[in-house]
Amino acid sequence: MKKWIFIIVLLLLVIFTGVSINVYVNAVKPVKTAEEKAVVLAKKSTSLSKVNDFHIYHGLESIDVIQGKNKKGENIIVWIPEKSKKVFVRKAKDGLSKNEAIQKLLQEKKPKQIISVRLGMERDIPLWEIYYRSNNNLINYYYIDFETGEWLKKIENL
Questions:
Q1: Predicted pLDDT at 41
Q2: Consecutive 10-residue runs of the chain (158 residues): their mean pLDDT?
Q3: CA distance 46 to 149
Q4: Cα of 43 vs its chain's centroid, Å
Q5: Contact (Cβ atoms closer than 8 angstroms) between residue 97 and residue 86
Q6: pTM of the predicted protein model
């Protein structure tokens, strides 16, 4: 009797694992497809030779953001708006670093927890989006111009 229970539990575990893997693969597939298309376009339009990071920024519109190196070995960032497919490329050293963007936030605010910091773009302006939780546990967004370091907008107390 114990043998049958063990076989049924093992069978359920295998089915659950298979379904979980299938759900994960199907959930990630659109992002992987977007990444492949964005990298092909970026390599065709810029000197991008190596991809270090890819993410999709969802602001006013969806933007593919690629961080990598050019053929000279310099760190570059490529932004590709989903609709226009216009390619924007900047050298990483020509803008604020992630830590410099965080320091800009800390000059004005005292967040309880910084949840994420990522590159994005709105109205053709490359930016840093900082998502943080304030001391009263409310969610806040802080946007900083990537090139000038100027504050662009805040969304507070959500």
A1: 95
A2: 89 96 93 93 94 95 96 96 94 96 93 96 96 94 95 90
A3: 24
A4: 19
A5: no
A6: 0.82
- Cβ neighbourhood burial of 45 (10 Å; 0-12, 13-18, 19+): middle
Give the tokens for residue 24. 């994960």
With vertex at residue 131, the alpha carbon angle to CA 37 and CA 155, rounded to the nearest 5 degrees, is: 105
For residue 38, give both structure tokens: 């964005």
Which candidate, 50, 69, 58, places its Cα nearest to that of 34? 58
- Whether residue 126 contacts residue 90, with contact meaning beta carbons closer than 8 Å, is answered with yes
- Give the C-alpha separation, 91 to 68, whole Å: 10
What is the tally of helices (H) and strands (E) in the chain? 2, 8
Distances (CA, A) of 94 to 38, 47, 76, 90, 148: 22, 16, 9, 7, 9
